[in-house]
Design goal:
Largest sheet: 2 strands, antiparallel
Strand content: under 5%
Radius of gyration: 18 Å
Number of domains: 1
Order of helices and strands: EEHHHHHHHEEHHHHH
Shape: globular
Structural class: mainly alpha
Number of helices: 12
């Protein structure tokens, strides 16, 4: 079933795009990562321009996040107060990201920037998650994990609030700053930001593991909505046909992933996600050394 994508100016196999959306949905419900970190690179590998892939993927992540938040909310796995603080920071970050996106696009380097960010961030996060996953399986990280608290820098920030859902008493500046970073990445890379947000919530904020996935999806939901609006008004790179195909699979996939999350062992899930992240990072690294057909992105006003 071939479908024409007007913004991408490309004909694609619609069933393949729906299947990709389903995989994204499963990852969203299972890991709380939104799935955009996988969607954007695979769309680029398929031949869709990076600008269109990034803008459209962030829109599609919104649908997957809605389904995932509902599922985790039923199990009381969402810290809404923490989520709202991060959303506020995320909206500010999305605005900053929109300005950066337009700047790099104006000088014809946005494609290179997107690929380079994926290599650096996915590689770093993948190695960190793989290291901890292996330590847990070997039984060498159990005591450290049980005593995990927020980062010392977070403890020194002023104006502390109580976040009852996460069991924390910390400054709202910490989750707000995390939200700003995630908002910038969402705008530039078309990701929900969960692959950065989940480790940050665990290792920097010291949140309880049982609310990390649901709170991550809550943040991703609203930040990707803001990102979609900004992309539509500024870059005009959102391909609505592509988004619709991705959404068909992702909404159902998120429910399935949320059910699996309650049954699978966390350390196994962490290793699986780390392997996926590192594989994508390696593929993007190879892509940086390929000679492109065009050195610069040509954009007609």
């Amino acid at each position: 079933m071939d479908v024409y994508l007007p913004i991408a100016n490309l004909s694609v196999n619609g069933l393949w795009i729906v299947a990709l959306g389903a995989v994204t949905g499963v990852l969203s419900g299972l890991f709380g990562v939104g799935g955009g970190f996988l969607t954007t690179p695979l769309l680029i590998f398929y031949g869709i321009p990076p600008t269109v892939a990034a803008a459209s993927a962030s829109t599609q992540v919104t649908g997957a996040s809605v389904s995932g938040v509902v599922a985790h909310s039923k199990r009381k796995g969402v810290d809404y107060r923490m989520g709202m603080v991060m959303v506020g920071g995320g909206v500010i970050g999305a605005g900053i990201g929109a300005l950066l996106f337009r700047f790099f696009r104006s000088i014809g380097q946005i494609d290179v920037v997107i690929n380079a960010l994926y290599v650096v961030l996915l590689g770093s996060i993948g190695l960190l998650m793989a290291k901890e996953g292996l330590q847990v399986l070997r039984g060498t990280a159990g005591k450290q994990a049980a005593r995990r608290r927020h980062h010392p820098l977070v403890a020194n920030l002023p104006w502390r609030w109580r976040f009852y859902g996460s069991g924390l008493y910390i400054s709202p500046l910490a989750p707000a700053i995390v939200g700003v970073v995630v908002g910038i990445l969402t705008m530039l890379m078309g990701v929900g930001g969960g692959f950065i947000l989940v480790p940050a919530m665990l290792y920097i904020l010291g949140m309880s593991a049982n609310v990390v996935v649901g709170t991550s999806l809550y943040n991703i939901l609203f930040v990707t909505i803001a990102t979609t609006i900004m992309h539509s008004l500024t870059t005009r790179a959102v391909d609505i046909v592509l988004v619709a195909l991705l959404l068909i699979g992702s909404v159902t996939g998120a429910q399935f992933g949320s059910q699996l999350a309650g049954r699978a062992k966390p350390e196994i899930l962490r290793l699986v996600l780390a392997a996926i992240v590192l594989a994508i990072a390696f593929r993007m690294l190879l892509g940086l050394f390929y000679q492109p057909d065009e050195i610069y992105t040509i954009y007609a006003l």
